[in-house]
Amino acid sequence: MNNDILRGVVESIDSPFLLSVVLILAVFFLTFKSEISDKLFTKKKKNIVIKRKISDLRNHDVFNTLKRIKLDVANMKFYTHKKFDRTKTLMCEDFTNTKSEVCGKYMLELLDYGIENMDRDKLKRTIVDLQIIMHEEYVNKIRNIWLAKKIEAEDVEYVISLFEKFRYDVVNSFEHRINSIFGSANYKNNFALTLAVFEMWAMGIDLLPRDMQTTFENLNGKFHEINY
């Protein structure tokens, strides 16, 4: 409080009792002004809601997870009859890299679909369709890579079907979780819905090295002699 203003107030008060009250209040407010200010404005500050944008999900951890699982699988080694199997090891790495790159590409593209204000049912359909497109593209790409490496078409389809067998529980849980997410009233807007889906995808991607390892450990030695 300005000293001149305070002096003027004091000089204008004739009553000693009233003057004492004013001085006590002035000292009180000067001493605790920061605490009083915080109390008055904290509630207002708490009511400020920062609206998150769909584009913020470009920084979601799912993209780091896609990079990390590629490194995890790159460190795996597979054996046939206790001897290092270079072909199976490289096949596994190529499969993982292809799946990671395709999925990462479509996840980023989803954020540019204009889903910010999309109808809830349309957003769900878009995400379900996108999962199908991802799957079809990475399977076709790895199929072509392996065929170009002179692996028999029958063997290529066998490896893909074996992977999908071990991956089935994850894919099936995706379907259940999407239905649960979009059926819940807890997700108030499209950002919250998409964030929940990205969290789900990150969980599934975390399990990918396990499924890759199980798939290629269950292959016999028929690829061992291939010059991959």
List the helices and strands and how they pair.
Blueprint: H1 3-12, H2 16-31, H3 33-46, H4 61-74, E1 79-80, E2 83-84, H5 86-110, H6 120-148, H7 153-182, H8 190-206, H9 208-217
Antiparallel strand pairs: 1-2
How would you explain this protein's 3D organization?
- By secondary structure, the protein is mainly α.
- The chain folds into two domains: 44 residues, no CATH class; 170 residues, no CATH class.
- 72% of the residues lie in helices and 2% in strands.
- Strand 1 and strand 2 form a beta hairpin.
- Helix 5 runs antiparallel to helix 6.
- The N and C termini lie far apart (82 Å).
- The mean pLDDT is 85.
Would you summarize the structure shown here?
With 228 residues, the chain is an all-alpha fold. The chain has helices at 3-12, 16-31, 33-46, 61-74, 86-110, 120-148, 153-182, 190-206, 208-217; strands spanning 79-80, 83-84.
The total of helices stands at 9
Let me know the number of strands: 2
Number of self-contained structural domains:
2
- State the strand order across the main sheet: 1-2
CA radius of gyration is: 31 Å
Q: What would you call the structural class?
A: mainly alpha
Shape: elongated
Q: Main β-sheet, in a few words?
A: 2 strands, antiparallel
How much helix is in the residues? Answer: over 70%
Task: Give me some keywords for this one.
single chain, 228 residues, mainly alpha, 2 domains, two-stranded antiparallel sheet, 2 strands, elongated
